[in-house]
Write a structure and sequence with these properties.
The protein is elongated. The N and C termini lie far apart (153 Å). It has a domain of 248 residues: Spore Coat Polysaccharide Biosynthesis Protein SpsA, Chain A (Alpha-Beta Complex), CATH 3.90.550. A six-stranded mixed beta sheet has the order 3-2-1-4-7-6. By secondary structure, it is of the alpha/beta class. It has ten helices and eleven strands. The longest helix has 53 residues. InterPro entries: DUF5672.
């Protein structure tokens, strides 16, 4: 019993000693903690900074740029001026945006109605959100209602200073001109030219393909212009109102100015207007096809090859179905003589008439003349 009693006393004593030692250690640490807290914090902070220095720098900027237009080249601008709210303007602009190099910006200048018609289209709003396109109406006293107003606009140096600052190249296109997606060349290949357009004859009404070309071959309906060259002309001369078109006015001066590289005959030709050439960058169709040049469009095989190369032309031209063709159409823009109508009758092969002969369908005949009421049999 004495042995058990001594053992229990020893165990209790050890337990008490451990408790006392732990309490003493706790009190001691609590007393030292305030003194070592700055040292511990400094050590942890230094280790965190060292770890941050060893980590790679990765930045995340989820906010888009304040001005989306800064993503594009401000010196390259495709310009369309049209006061009429034409239904094909939006498809034309979106097509041109797909063909023109992606760093080019677009500017549509219109009237109140054409700006509303173009600006409400989702495709145009998407281009605006990307910073690639602006749609605007010029303030007074500027006007674009008449063709002469547009000529005055493009020959006024203030327009380039106020509305086109920083622009060096302008691709001017109209509602009846278009670039071809199948073109083997890029628009940027003409950037070293002062003016590039469509070749023309000295007499634009000539039908002689061997006729004399103008020294300056750059019609303005679809043309690439260098603004520095335009400024050089406008710096010493002004166009008289109600005179020649602006492209002819610029052409006569640029073609004789030293150091300016302008389209001459087929050299530097950008588009086709009234002189045919193989695989141009684009076409300019006057009035949507109401005044086609016979040298380019008269031959049906040539027309077929043009539309196979540039099917986008059907967006601009006033076309109709093949079945709507007149029976006496000679496929070259003319009509056959009345004596040829029997020859142009359509034979239906494989159908036999009552007498066993081939049924012949004559061309459509005019309706009978109306009869007077007294002549009608009751």
């Amino acid at each position: 019993m004495a042995v058990l009693s001594s053992t229990s006393i020893l165990a209790a004593t050890k337990t008490r000693l451990l408790v006392l030692a732990s309490l003493a250690l706790t009190w001691w640490l609590a007393h030292l903690a305030p003194q070592y807290r700055p040292i511990v914090q400094a050590g942890v902070s230094s280790r965190l900074q060292e770890a941050r220095r060893k980590m790679p720098n990765i930045g995340f900027d989820w906010r888009p740029a304040d001005d989306a237009r800064a993503q594009h080249n401000a010196s390259k601008l495709a310009l369309l001026i049209e006061p009429r709210p034409m239904p094909h303007l939006v498809p034309l602009i979106t097509h041109m945006a797909a063909v023109v190099p992606p760093d080019w910006r677009f500017l549509f200048i219109g009237s109140q109605w054409s700006v509303y018609s173009v600006g409400r289209a989702p495709a145009i709003k998407h281009q605006q959100a990307m910073g690639r396109m602006d749609v605007r109406k010029l303030p007074s006293p500027w006007s674009i209602e008449r063709q002469e107003d547009i000529f005055r606009l493009l020959t006024d140096l203030r327009v380039y200073d106020e509305f086109l600052p920083g622009v060096e190249w302008i691709l001017k296109f109209e509602h009846d001109s278009i670039l071809c997606a199948n073109s083997p060349k890029s628009l940027d290949e003409w950037l070293d030219w002062s003016w590039a357009g469509a070749p023309w004859y000295v007499d634009n009404l000539t039908r002689d393909p061997e006729g004399e070309y103008d020294q300056f071959s750059g019609t303005g309906g679809l043309s690439l212009r260098r603004v520095s060259a335009i400024r050089r002309v406008l710096g010493f001369q002004e166009r008289h109102n109600n005179s020649e078109p602006e492209d002819e006015w610029f052409g006569k001066r640029l073609s004789v100015m030293p150091g300016e590289k302008v389209t001459s005959k087929f050299q530097g030709a950008l588009a086709v207007e009234n002189v045919f050439m193989e695989k141009p960058m684009g076409y300019h169709i006057h009035g949507g096809g109401s005044n086609l040049n016979h040298d380019v469009w008269k031959n049906p095989e040539m027309r077929k090859s043009i539309f196979e190369y540039c099917p986008e032309l059907s967006m601009l031209m006033d076309m109709k179905l093949e079945r709507e063709r007149c029976p006496d159409d000679d496929r070259q823009g003319g009509r056959g003589a009345d004596d040829d109508l029997p020859r142009l009758a359509v034979q239906v092969v494989g159908k036999q008439g009552e007498g066993g002969g081939t049924i012949v369908l004559q061309p459509p005949q005019p309706p009978p003349m109306p009869q007077q009421r007294g002549d009608i049999e009751h």
